[in-house]
Write a structure and sequence with these properties.
Blueprint: H1 2-16, H2 22-29, H3 47-59, E1 67-73, H4 79-92, E2 98-103, H5 106-123, E3 130-132, E4 136-139, E5 149-152, H6 161-164, E6 172-178, H7 185-194, E7 201-208, H8 216-219, E8 229-233, H9 243-253, H10 258-265, H11 279-287, E9 300-305, E10 314-320, E11 323-324, E12 328-330, H12 335-349, E13 353-357, H13 364-373, E14 379-381, H14 395-409, H15 418-425, E15 429-432, E16 435-438, H16 441-448, H17 453-460
Parallel strand pairs: 1-7, 1-8, 2-5, 2-6, 6-7, 9-13, 13-14
Antiparallel strand pairs: 3-4, 4-5, 9-10, 10-11, 10-12, 15-16
Amino acid sequence: MTDYLQLEEELIDLVMDCRADPLAFVLLAFPWGENGELEKFPDGPDDWQRDILNDIKMGLLTPTEAIQEAVASGHGIGKSALVAWIIYWAMSTMEDTKGIVTANTETQLKTKTWSELAKWHRLAINRHWFEFTATALFSTTKDHDKTWRVDMVPWSERNTEAFAGLHNKGKRVLLVFDEASAIPDGIWEVAEGALTDEGTQIIWCAFGNPTRSRGRFRECFGRFKHRWNTRQIDSRTARMTNKTQLQAWLDDYGIESDFAKIRVLGQFPSADVNALLTAAEVDAAMARVYKKGQFEFAAKILGVDVARQGLDDSVIAHRHGNVLFPLKPMHIPDSVLVAQQVAQEQDAAQDDATFVDATGGYGAGVVDCLRTTMNRQCTEVYFSGRSNDHHYFNKRSEMIFEMAKWVKAGGSIPKGETMLRDELLAITYSYNGDKLKINEKEEVREELGRSPDRADAVALTFAFPVAPGRRDDFGFPVQTKHQDSGAYDPFAMKE
């Protein structure tokens, strides 16, 4: 008994020496090079895995900041093993560590991520410290099973409490996203808001194949890069990959193909499958700047998307030729107040046409108020209505395709419109018979956690062709179109 206690104390000392050194723990905890599963790996982790573990070590030197690691890779490099090592190190080297592990699907989580953790738990030198179950790894220390644990939690946009409640003040918090590309933005946002405990070691790791050209995992390598340590791993550089298969993919698809980028190079694709716009195209539009007055010959058009649910925004878009002005979102559950805002924008813009979304009747109140109460002119647009061009499935599809053409052909989007950017990149299309059809709004809502109100408002500025009106020396229209409550003919030239 005495010998056992002495050996256990020595093991505790060895493990605790690795409290701030994940790589040292991994080399200590597993039987590298011994007969069995690790016989072919006498040197331990691959070079890229060592780099990530050392990144975490360096991050622990500045405990006031969260450690955020994002790794995009091709196939077969051993990322699930690295996830398991990080979990086991975090749990082994600090009492009452709490963590959550999630993945893109419950199947991935159970059959890949958690299954890999089971393997390394079985191999660990200190496995008797923890109980491993189908959904959790927790301490066997008395009265610590609730406070010293990592749980497997499938994500759900309808049930984010598990992520919002991840707090462990003064201790260590671990959050792991596996196959992170397909985890919705809403889950990222809830998790980000929860990891704020002061005086706490916070470690957030996101791993995955870079399957999508948009979303929060992509933005770890883009506009949020200043918050994340990022690495993109080419599968050909990893020790354990099947180089013959990788080369076959390159031969079949070409190194420049999105297939090769995702599965071999660890690079994000140019666009999602059936994506209407690429990130490069939208970013180019956000970088364009035109001189003031450059589009005086063009019509000034307002598009108004009216909120349908309590969490949605009504949005006014003002476009003058190739220039889109900053959008005006409104969280106002009153059609009269929305109409008042539209009227103010009409006066400020001195627009040539205002198109209001009347789908489902939600915008009908705004249209009626503008016409009858305020004596303003506007045109209602029904997204599900018939398109002018028979190649499109409905009016919404037509407007959005026209908007996409504008983005590609020289449109200018304000740099601050990042939510619009996300919505534009979330738009996909398919064919319904021989007609082009844009994905439903609910599909975008499911992905982004919100309705694409901004993109729809901009799309409404392409509802019909509009000819610019004749203006006086002060830039005001000569015609009195806002005093005419009749139907607006978008094809008519103004006098």
